[in-house]
Amino acid sequence: MEISFIASLIAAIASPIVFGFMNVFDKFIISKKVRHILGYTGIAGAINVFLGLILILVLDWSGITLRSMIIPAIAGVFFGSQFFFYFSMLKKEDISNLIGFMYTYPLIVALLSFIFLKEILSMTGYLGMALIIIGVLAISLRLKKIKLRASLWMLVIFIMIVAVTEFFIKVAISDIPAFNGIAINTFVMGLTVTTLFFGKTTRKTFFKEIKNIRFAAVAESCTFMGVITLYVAMTNMPATIVTSIGAIQPLVVIIFERIFHRIFGGMIRDDVLLKKIIPIIIIAIGVIMIYSQEILKLIKQ
Questions:
Q1: pLDDT in tens, 65-76
Q2: What are the Cα distances from residue 15, in Å, to 18, 32, 42, 68, 230?
Q3: Cα–Cα distance, 280 to 153 (Å, whole number)
Q4: Average pLDDT over residues 96-113
Q5: Which H or E run includes 11?
Q6: Are 247 and 15 in contact (CB under 8 A)?
Q7: Where are the domains of the chain?
Q8: For residue 282, pLDDT beyond 60
Q9: How many Å apart are CA 76 and CA 38, to the nearest integer?
Q10: What is the mean pLDDT of the chain?
């Protein structure tokens, strides 16, 4: 399937909006509906296996080599391994704070790109890194003041996994058509999550959470659309540009978080908007500065 540059640009803009809505909807489900995280996570994994399998069956696989499937499969493993950490932290913290913190991952992507892809940052890029660190420190001080409930080690692992996932998607898109990569990524992501069923607690609580399958179906459909927009965006655009545009995701999360809080209540512990939004804007500017050279090159073309 041929994907135009315009389609990639639209997908790059849509991706943080889709993921931002998904983050807040996930928070709503976990806060209001779910009692057993492991059981619900198992349901989410099974839905992704189903979505990935449907896409695998409808796509043309002629000319796709086994070697080209390996990288999106690895991306799927890392993507799937985020789920438990993500849902566990959602139960305890505001999603806007978590996603703001998560946007330290471009620092790790930049480091991996330097080591493996020989991509070198400009001086502006290093200033962007400094801004991200300043923004994260501001969020950290705020979280310390309101008493972080989520485990710090979980947050660190989550950020690392997000970074490695995006790096592998960045590599995968050069070797395989976008939708074939999406199919493998989603299917393997779901399989990775369903390994939780080897645990007795997951099997037991799965049936207690089956009533929430309709909510999980909506949430994982959003995840599926997010993965699609991310792959389509990276087909004709540098991953660095896609990540820079994606830096608006924490701001999107804050908007949806406020809307859901007004309608349903109980979505926010830390209700001081200004102290949330300033560090997130600093981080977003930092992310854009990291990739400023690539953005300028694209504008000049």
A1: 989 999 999 999
A2: 5, 25, 25, 24, 6
A3: 21
A4: 76
A5: helix 5-32
A6: no
A7: 5-300
A8: yes
A9: 19
A10: 85
